[in-house]
Design goal:
alpha+beta; 169 residues; 20% helix; two-stranded antiparallel sheet
Amino acid sequence: MTRRAIILLPLLLSLAACDSGEPGVMSVREYEGDLGEAVIRQLIKSLPDPAPGVPKNYCVIFGEFARGGAPIPARTDFMRRFDDLNLPFVSATSLKESEPDHALIDQQSGLSPYLLQIRSMKSTSATTWDVEMGWAYKKTFERHSYKVELKDGKHTVISSERIEGNFAP
């Protein structure tokens, strides 16, 4: 009996960690669906260019930045949804810190990417969601709250509010 309890305890704890307990909160892996694609496309459309003329890569990440941890990288299949945009996407696993400013760069190209982060998604009804997301480029960043609605089979951002950031147009 004790042996079973020792085996089951880590499994139960890991399952508990998967659920925030808050109704409507989506798991990080659910971000790679049609809703996640729609909000990333909206974010890309609205991105400012803090360094005009400088080539950039794009990198999609999910969830919170854990203390001392790394973000969850988007899977290749999800990033392929954006092939029609003809933008260079890289995986978060290919990024490293550069010296002396500790900015993230893609190890292969040496370029600093736009980090596109879906921080959280919460269903507020059968056809609406609250999505918190943001972008960062080197030391410049913004975080936004989107309200998204599913209408006629298409996810549409119906409102956007800037939460914080240091980008000044």
